[in-house]
Design goal:
heterodimer; A: alpha+beta; 5-stranded mixed β-sheet; 23 helices; about 10% strand; B: alpha/beta; 6-stranded mixed β-sheet; 4-stranded antiparallel β-sheet; 10 strands; globular
Chain lengths: ~650, ~260
């Protein structure tokens, strides 16, 4: 067998043939593999850096938000209208309710008109013609019978439900869950609470016809206009501690305001002008300083909102309806205005006063009896309002949604940034430290028409589960949960990442690995065709040389060794070109964006002083081995068939083809 | 047969200068050249017995050789001649083991080439036979010295020994100064002399040359033939050349003529 040294001598001499074709082959194949190499390096780098930030931001905890999947029937909703059995149940419930009311009224010697009870069933003019006439009805959610009905449904549901907190804990335990947190929704909303912008109350935006302000009804809209739409939730401090600012003098001076963490976007809208806060700088390097200045200015800042209960909202509705009717009939001398009318409050969050009461004595007595009856049932709600004072204790960065794809940093931060769902967040522990009167629990934690204390008491509600690793969180989400917004998938919970989209960072790995695996065959195909064509040509054109080598005593394996080494040298050059190109692209991206994205990541993840440099370059030995092996494999495979043909040919014919 | 030291000195002196000048000097005083010798009566080194070679060209079967028998003796200088298509090159290639006869037997130093396996035949060729081709077939991107070294690479000759042999051979063929040059920097005659040097690297006992002067002018052709004679004279190498040039054939010890695949 020819020595390695001599093989190298002959193989290197061979490299001088067809140099231009060879150079084109190396460049084109190298481009194909180089881009693949760059993609691999970047994907690995981005994924590793995002993971590092996620770990830092959440102190190594990976959170999963769990929502129990509750069938809509538990709230009395049913597609196609109520069934005959439901109608029978509701009719019985209503009859029982009226009977109880009657008995109570009799006992209290109060008048009671059964007609004053809003019926639980109303005609449904939109029912399909195929529905029998006696079932063309719909449930009246404003009826006092409705809560009785849902309570009955929910009591039955709770008895067999498999989506309680205890069930969640059992399901999460095998995955190593380390903690469970229960967020609470706050009963304030845009229909009953108005943010007092500049200390003024806009009553026209309250009531049943209210619409969200500032933005749309998407999660993003609620997130960036949560204060204006009075959308709040109580969140465990541990989950948002990176956004909670240190206590300062302003906060020490005011110990009775409800603590709240709001978004930077909303902070700009609400306080940008009054606090002289500039627009966020475009330059990433100035974002942190801007963010810190914003936090310093807003930490301890208070704002107020006015909550009005359903009875007051009803008065407001009556008032606005009376005003509309009066305007409509202003030239109609026969028009008789309502006997009872109200005057709007004279001060923000002030009382609604009776403007005029021309009701007869009987009418007044009937109304008073109704109130007394409701009071006796514990269902009476006197008109009331409360001025709520909130104090900003944290600011959470939120990426602009509309231009998330306009730049790499925006894209990164919108993908990987905080994911806390909708609403401004009230830290539970800080809230708990408030004096009882300042907590306004009767308002903030009141049960509403569609929330159920029955379900909550049974442990059926939103919960946050903490896991020590992405893998554990991922497995738990995939194996035990349905995707968010799913009504049913055969599992009791919807599960999704919480606090940051760490799964996305993990998915980048998986997806890019998949993409690279998909792209690899194409790159191999392109490079393979080119390498094959060139190598085959070189080998075919070397027939005479092969024949001469054989004539002067070369064995077939000697010749194979020379050409295989030649092929390896070509492959090594393609590998070198690919790596240089791949590293070049990756380092260029690193040089252009690393500092900028590091700052964005620090802002996005809320870890100004803890986040390390965001590196775009990550080495995955397996990827590099695949790349190198592919190139070498192609080169060797490309050369083998023509080479085998060459050494098997008769040298005579090849030498005489001059 | 061994050359006297004086003969070697004369020859080297002749070729240390330019090949063309050397050849010119060779052509003029014919008296200074050794006369064609009588067929040597040494042992038979190459034996061809009743060899036939048929091959297909399209649908037609070509009888390239038909019952050829001949013996070539050690140190003999034989010219195979004949018209184009007479079978002379085919016979040379069969002698070199590059192809196998359809029937008959070719033995070199008692080895039946047909019975040798491919690897053994390659080794045998490498050690026993030197080939010179009409179109030289040097490696275009290897310096001359390395080109001459190539058979040694395949023959497992130690690099130091190979290089010493290369220096010796390049001196013999008058190309010592061109050892580092690439073939494209040399003339046709120089390239063919280098090709002869390459053929001699492993000290073969038989040198087979297929139209070695077919691509050279008369001056360079004469120089190449003189080189063959010198090799035969100094190393006792048996030389078989295929040529259609009667002047060259006349300088051989023996001319074997072929016509339509048979000896005439």
């Amino acid at each position: 067998m020819i020595s390695l040294r001599d093989t190298i001598t002959l193989a290197r001499a061979k490299l001088h043939t067809k140099r231009i074709m060879l150079a084109i082959t190396i460049v084109v194949s190298g481009l194909s593999f180089g881009i693949l190499c760059a993609a691999g390096l970047l994907a690995t780098g981005i994924s590793k850096s995002a993971h590092a930030y996620t770990r830092t931001a959440l102190d190594g905890q990976y959170l999963v938000k769990s929502q129990p999947i509750i069938p809509p029937e538990v709230f009395g909703f049913s597609s196609g209208g109520p069934s005959a059995a439901t109608i029978a149940t509701l009719t019985t419930l209503q009859a029982t309710y009226i009977s109880q009311q009657k008995d109570l009224a009799k006992k209290l010697k109060l008048s009671f008109d059964p007609q004053s009870v809003a019926p639980i069933l109303l005609p449904n003019p939109y029912a399909e013609a195929s529905v029998p006439a006696d079932r063309r009805v719909r449930i009246n959610f404003d009826s006092p019978v409705y809560p009785l009905y849902t309570q009955k449904l929910q009591t039955e549901y709770v008895a067999t439900a498999k989506n309680k907190l205890a069930d969640l804990k059992t399901a999460a335990a095998p995955y190593g869950a380390t903690a469970f947190h229960q967020n609470q929704s706050v009963a304030l909303n845009y229909a009953n609470t108005s943010y007092l912008a500049g200390g003024k109350e806009d009553l026209s935006k309250l009531g049943p016809n209210a619409r969200p302000q500032g933005s749309d009804q998407t999660t993003y809209g609620y997130l960036t206009a949560s204060v204006r739409n009075s959308s709040y939730s109580l969140v465990d401090d541990a989950l948002i501690k990176r956004f909670i600012l240190p206590v300062n003098d302003k906060r020490r001076a005011n110990l009775a305001a409800i603590p709240v963490v709001i978004t930077t976007t909303e902070a700009m809208t609400l306080f940008g002008q009054s606090y002289n806060i500039s627009q966020p700088p475009v330059s990433a390097s100035q974002q942190i300083a801007w963010m810190k200045a914003l936090q310093q200015k807003l930490n301890g800042t208070t704002y107020t909102a006015c909550y009005r209960n359903e009875a007051e909202i009803s008065e407001l509705t009556t008032m606005s309806q009376a005003a509309a009717a009066a305007a409509e009939h202003k030239d109609d001398k026969t028009y008789v205005p309502p006997a009872l009318s109200y005057s709007p409050p004279t001060a923000p969050c002030g009382d609604i006063t009776v403007k005029q009461d021309k009701r007869s004595a009987d009418e007044k007595k009937a109304a008073q009896d109704q109130i007394a009856l409701s009071q006796a049932l514990g269902a009476y709600e006197a008109p009331q309002h409360q001025l709520l004072t909130f104090m900003i204790v944290g600011v959470m960065p939120v990426s602009p949604q509309t231009n998330a794809l306009t730049s790499l940093p925006n894209f990164m931060s919108s993908l990987l940034g905080a994911q806390y769902g909708a609403g401004a967040m009230i830290p539970q522990q800080l809230f708990g430290q408030l004096p009882a009167a300042a907590q306004h629990k009767d308002v903030l934690l009141a049960s509403s028409k569609f929330s159920s204390s029955t379900l909550t008491a049974a442990g059926i509600g939103e919960a946050i589960v903490s896991f020590p690793s992405v893998g554990a969180a991922r497995s738990f989400i995939h194996q035990q949960g349905c995707p968010p917004d799913t009504n049913s998938c055969g599992k009791p919970f919807t599960l999704e990442p919480y606090g940051s989209n760490y799964l996305l960072a993990d998915d980048i790995d998986t997806t890019v690995t998949k993409a690279l695996r998909t792209a690899l065959p194409f790159a191999i195909l392109i490079a393979g065709i080119i390498i094959w064509a060139t190598m085959a040509r070189v080998i075919i054109d070397s027939r005479r040389e092969t024949a001469v080598f054989r004539a002067i005593g070369a064995k077939r394996r000697d010749i194979m060794a020379v050409y295989l080494l030649y092929s390896l040298i070509v492959a090594a050059r393609i590998v070198a070109f690919s790596l240089i190109l791949g590293l070049g692209i990756a380092f260029t991206v690193q040089a252009l964006y690393s500092a900028q994205v590091t700052d964005y990541a620090k802002v996005t993840f809320g870890v100004f002083d803890r986040g390390q440099s965001f590196s775009f370059i990550g080495f995955d030995p397996a990827q590099l081995i695949w790349l190198v092996a592919s190139i070498i494999g192609i080169s060797l495979v490309a050369i083998l068939p023509p080479l085998l043909r060459n050494v098997r040919r008769s040298p005579i014919s090849d030498m005489r083809d001059e | 047969m061994t050359a006297t030291p004086q003969q070697i000195r004369d020859f080297l002196e002749l070729f240390n200068g330019d090949a063309v000048l050397a050849a010119q000097s060779l052509q003029a005083p014919a008296a200074t050249l050794p006369k064609p010798q009588e067929a040597p009566s040494g042992p038979v080194v190459l034996s061809v017995k009743d060899v036939a070679k048929r091959y297909k060209r399209g649908k037609q079967v070509v009888n390239a050789l038909n019952g050829v028998s001949l013996d070539i003796h050690e140190g003999e200088f034989v010219a195979l001649t004949g018209a184009s298509g007479s079978g002379k090159s085919t016979l040379l290639q069969l002698m070199g083991g590059l192809d196998k006869p359809t029937s008959g037997e070719i033995t070199i130093e008692g080895h039946d080439l047909s019975r040798l396996k491919d690897t053994a035949l390659a080794e045998f060729r490498n050690q026993t036979i030197g080939f010179v081709f009409q179109f030289f077939y040097l490696q275009p991107f290897l310096p001359l010295g390395k080109n001459v070294e190539v058979p040694g690479m395949f023959g497992h000759v130690k690099p130091a020994d190979r290089q010493a042999r290369v220096r010796e051979l390049l001196q013999i063929v008058g190309l010592s100064e061109q050892a580092q040059q690439l073939p494209k920097q040399l003339s046709g005659g120089q390239i063919q002399r280098a090709a002869v040097a390459r053929a001699l690297l492993n000290k073969p006992r038989i040198l087979l040359a297929d139209e070695p002067t077919g691509n050279l002018d008369s001056t360079n052709s004469a120089a190449i033939i003189e080189l063959f004679k010198h090799i035969r004279a100094t190393a006792g190498t048996t030389v078989v050349i295929v040529t259609h040039n009667p002047d060259i054939a006349a300088q051989a010890d023996r001319e074997i003529r072929l016509s339509d695949g048979v000896l005439v």
